Amino acid sequence: MSGVWSGIVTYWRDLWRAWNQFWFAPTDPATLCLIRVLAGGMLLYTHLVWSKDLTAFFGPDGWISHELAAAKNAERLTIDPFGWLGSPALLWTVHVGFLIAFFCLFIGLWTRVTSVLAAIGAIAYATHVSPGAFFGLDKVNCMLATYLAIGPSGARYSVDRLLRIRRGEVDDPASSSSANLALRLMQIHLCVMYLFAGLGKVKGDRWWDGTATWFTIANDAYRSTDMTWLANHLYLLDFLTHATVAWELSYCFLVWNRFTRPWILAAAIGAHLFIAFCMGMQTFGWAMIFANLAFFAPALVRKACDPVAGRISLALAGSGAAAPA
Q1: Where does residue 272 rank: exposed (0-12), middle (13-18), buried (19+ CB within 10 A)?
Q2: Which of 71, 140, 193, 244 has the most other CB atoms within 10 Å of its CB?
C-alpha cells in the first residue's frame, strides 16, 4: 500500500514540477522582444490611420454617438473608454498620447511603462463601438499588446537596451520567467483561436463540400489578387478547403511537437500570407504571422536578429562600445 501511495505522491509532484517548468522556466527574452518590434509597429500603424478622421470614429458627434455607444456597451457589460471625452481637443490629446506610447513600444523606450499604456490604448480603441474598430486585427493587437506588457519585451532590440549599453551595462539580458509566461500565454491563446476557428468552419456546408476556398477568392469584396484561375483546378480548391480546416483543428495538438511544429508553422505563415495578399487583409495577415513567432526558439531568433541589432547598436552607441543586441 505504501508503494501505491508513494507512486501517487511522485506522480503529482512530477506533474506540479512539469506545470511550473512549462509556465515559469526562465527563457531568453529574444523571441518576445522581436514580437515587440513587429507588433509595436503594427499597433502604431493601425492606430495612426484613425487620425485621418478621428472625430468621426470616436468623437461625441461622430458616426456612432456616445449615447449609442454607451447603450451597446451596457449590453456587452463593457465601458466606453471614450465616452468621457467631451471635446475634440481632449480626444486628440488622448489619441496623440496613445500614439506616443505605441511608438515607444515599437522602438523599445521606457518599455515597462509604455507596454502597459499601449495595451490599455489598444483595448480602449477596440472596446469603443466604432465602425471598423473591432475586427480580427484589433483583437490580435489587443492580445499581443497585453502579453507584451507581462514580460521584459524591451530587454533586447530596443532603445532601453541601447541606453544600458551607453551606461556601460553590456551584460547579456538574463533569462526571465515572465518572458516565458508571456510567450506561453500567446501560444495558448493562438491554440484556442485556431481551434475555435476550425470548429466554426465545420458548421458550414461549404467547408464540407470543398467550395469554401472558391467562394472566398471569387468574392469581389475581399479580392486583392485575382486567383480565379483556380477554377480550372477544382481538386486543388477542394484540397485547400479541407486542408485549412484540418490545419486549424490540429494546430493546438501538433504545434507542441518539435517534429510537427515546423510544418504547422509553415502552414500558418502560408495561410496568413494568402489572407494578406489575396484577400486584401494585409494587416491582419501580418499580425497573425507575428503572433505565430511565439513558437520560434530564442536561439533561432538571436541567430537571425542579433547581427543586425549588433550593427545598429554599434553605430548608435559609438565604436568604442561593445555591440550586444
Answers
A1: buried
A2: 140
What's the pLDDT tens digit per position in 269-324?
999 999 988 888 899 999 999 999 999 999 999 999 988 887 877 777 554 444 45
Distant-in-sequence, close-in-space partners of 230: CB < 8 Å, separation ≥ 6? 213, 214, 217, 236, 237
Distances (CA, A) of 300 to 28, 269, 296, 304: 11, 17, 7, 6
Residue 27 pairs in a beta bridge with: 176
> Range with the lowest mean pLDDT among 5-19, 93-107, 167-181?
167-181
For residue 185, the number of C-alpha atoms closer than 13 Å in the C-beta half-sphere is 19
Residues 128 and 142: their CA atoms lie apart, in Å, by 13
pLDDT in tens, 158-190: 999 888 878 777 667 778 999 999 999 999 999
φ/ψ of residue 224, rounded to 5: -110, -20
Q: Does residue 177 contact residue 26 with C-beta atoms inside 8 Å? A: yes
- How far apart (Å, rounded) are the C-alpha atoms in residues 50 and 272? 24
Cα dihedral sign, 77-80-81-86:
negative
Please tell me the pTM assigned to this model.
Answer: 0.88
CB 31 within 8 A of CB 180: no
- CA-nearest of 82, 160, 86 to 125 is 82
Q: Which tens digit of pLDDT belongs to each residue from 246-265?
A: 999 999 999 999 999 999 99
